[in-house]
């Protein structure tokens, strides 16, 4: 989805106008190989803007669209040997492994000599999340983030104080209930069911997981005091009718707040909303404020097997530059995340986005050997939580039952692996 949302027609035009008459170019023609979802997506997102400035550097895109999983993409990568390694295979989960295998060039010497980018101008939370043993082997021009969006027009109308950065979820739910009381409409809208709000968004801010994946991943951990307090918070807010799951309620001006990612910027343009809005950081666990969002999502690194490392660096340097970030912000959709370069933190030159740069993502290691039963838990949990909200089942009973069902499912998944 993210790959199809960025439209670069305007960006290319802006960048071309910004170029000097004699644009810097590589001394010889070079073709860089890179894996991307499709050639069209890569060109729209990055390639067209880059080749406008460096016409002697072209791209051969190896499409991954028809490849089903990461294993297939890794095999394609090993076969094609791209010059640029990308987020088609790279992620925060496996970056350490790529470095350990000697597949990525150390970018620190290139960064030190760069005139187009300064490391201090890039969001340090994202930069630090990509470091391996203190060094940078990748940079990402964009990052995924969540924020608490709010309708300033409604807040002003009912004389309620605006949300602030790093609010706790309890504070947000209290504010939503205040809105319901004063305005008669829900203070908070969520795009999915309320089990997902508790188990995904809120639990993510507390770095809680269904499984103890950091301890082997063989145990379900959902029937705990921490989990119960989260579900209880949502139940109480729902009973006060402070939350709605009505589609587009926030964009329609019928709800005062919502939590979402960069796709909301796309919605603001498509829906042509007429109210004033603002955004602050996503709600957090006050004891340990973190971002529950993914973080760097368009990593690029230089393969140690590439014969065109300097040309590959020109690309990485360009997409992390001020010029690229300004063009991206001018487009305004931000479907692929916020620019990592902090040169321009305002949407449409008026809405302050600085709150979205405050929180650091959690750097987790992904172990493909651990069974993932999150889909099962979400399906079972959604049905069970509905009965809690209707008052036909107690929260304690729900958590106990879900714990047992999920553990049984997890045991079966491990048994299939023979472990």
From TrEMBL:
InterPro entries: Bact_solute-bd_prot1, SBP. It holds the Pfam family SBP_bac_1. Keywords: Signal. It comes from the Bacteria. Residues 1-25 form the signal peptide. The keyword Signal applies. This is Extracellular solute-binding protein.
């Amino acid at each position: 989805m993210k790959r199809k949302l960025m439209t670069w027609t305007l960006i290319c035009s802006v960048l071309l106008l910004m170029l000097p008459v004699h644009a810097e170019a590589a001394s010889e023609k070079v073709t860089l190989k890179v894996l991307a979802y499709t050639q069209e997506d890569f060109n729209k997102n990055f390639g067209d803007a880059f080749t406008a400035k460096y016409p002697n550097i072209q791209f051969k895109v190896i499409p991954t669209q028809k490849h089903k999983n990461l294993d297939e993409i890794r095999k394609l990568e090993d076969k094609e040997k791209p010059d640029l390694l990308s987020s088609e295979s790279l992620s925060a989960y496996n970056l350490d492994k790529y470095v350990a295998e000697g597949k990525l060039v150390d970018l620190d010497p290139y960064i030190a000599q760069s005139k187009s980018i300064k490391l201090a101008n890039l969001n340090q939370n994202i930069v630090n999340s990509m470091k391996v043993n203190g060094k940078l082997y990748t940079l990402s021009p964009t990052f995924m983030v969540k924020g608490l969006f709010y309708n300033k027009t409604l807040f002003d109308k009912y004389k309620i104080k605006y949300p602030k950065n790093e609010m706790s979820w309890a504070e947000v739910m209290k504010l939503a209930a205040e809105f319901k009381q004063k305005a008669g409409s829900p203070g908070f809208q969520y795009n999915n069911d309320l089990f997902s709000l508790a188990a995904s968004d809120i639990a993510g801010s507390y770095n809680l997981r269904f499984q103890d994946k950091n301890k082997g991943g063989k145990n379900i951990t959902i029937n705990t005091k921490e989990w119960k307090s989260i579900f209880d918070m949502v139940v109480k807010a729902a009973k006060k009718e402070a939350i709605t799951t009505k589609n587009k309620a926030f964009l329609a001006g019928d709800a005062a707040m919502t939590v979402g990612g960069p796709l909301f910027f796309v919605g603001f343009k498509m829906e042509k909303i007429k109210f004033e809005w603002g955004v602050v950081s996503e709600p957090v666990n006050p004891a340990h404020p973190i971002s529950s969002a993914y973080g760097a999502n368009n990593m690029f690194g230089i393969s140690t097997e590439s014969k065109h490392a300097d040309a590959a660096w020109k690309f990485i340097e360009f997409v992390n530059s001020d010029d690229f970030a300004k063009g991206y912000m001018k487009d305004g959709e931000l479907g692929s995340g916020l620019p990592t370069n902090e040169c321009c933190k305002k949407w449409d030159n008026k809405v302050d986005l600085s709150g979205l740069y405050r929180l650091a993502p959690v750097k987790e290691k992904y172990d493909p050997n651990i069974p993932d039963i999150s889909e099962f838990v979400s399906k079972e949990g959604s049905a069970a939580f509905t009965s809690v909200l209707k008052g036909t089942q107690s929260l304690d009973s729900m958590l106990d039952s879900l714990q047992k069902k999920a553990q049984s499912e997890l045991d079966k998944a491990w048994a299939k692996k023979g472990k």
